[in-house]
Amino acid sequence: MANETKLPVTKKTNEPAFGGETWRPFEALRKEVDRLFEDFGTDDFWRRPFRSLAGFERNLAQKLVSTPAVDVTESDKAYEITAELPGMDEKDIEVNVANDGLTIKGEKKFEREEKQKDYYVSERRYGSFERHFGLPKDVEADKIEASFRNGVLKVTLPKTAEAQKPAKKIEVKAA
């Protein structure tokens, strides 16, 4: 009972517990390396040697934004959701409660422009994420609080007074 999680998690076959597409960076890298070895020695390989690795890097950067690491913990008085969102500001994060669920959304924008005498570099990266959690019945939805510090979002979901009462021990008698 101590390890029981009261946040409902529905999981479809072959789908991660918190939604979204499964991200397997090493599998994607292995497939890319396999493709490079298959193409090695062909005329096409020498024309565009590592063009797709740039795409792999972009995909990796997007995945890092689109699926933040999240921990869900429970204490006697509240549940706490902690999401790691490095490089983001609180203005880029939105936390909503509606229809017995909590949604955390965010968008990260990165723009860089560098002009020198003999070159010009302009980069733009955008990534967004959205995570949804079902709320247990023993949460006081109107008292949910969120704070953001040093790239870590903490959402506290306080339990109702009834849920905070200690468990009553029942004496077991011999029959």
UniProtKB/TrEMBL annotation:
Organism: Bradyrhizobium diazoefficiens (strain JCM 10833 / BCRC 13528 / IAM 13628 / NBRC 14792 / USDA 110)
Xref: SUPFAM superfamilies: HSP20-like chaperones (SSF49764)
CDD domains referenced in this protein's UniProt entry, alphabetically: ACD_sHsps-like (cd06464)
Domain SHSP: 61-175
Official protein name in the record: Blr7961 protein
PANTHER family: HEAT-SHOCK PROTEIN 20 FAMILY MEMBER (PTHR11527)
Region (Disordered) residue spans: 1-20
InterPro entries: A-crystallin/Hsp20_dom, HSP20-like_chaperone, Small_HSP
Record Pfam families: HSP20 (PF00011)
Family: Belongs to the small heat shock protein (HSP20) family.
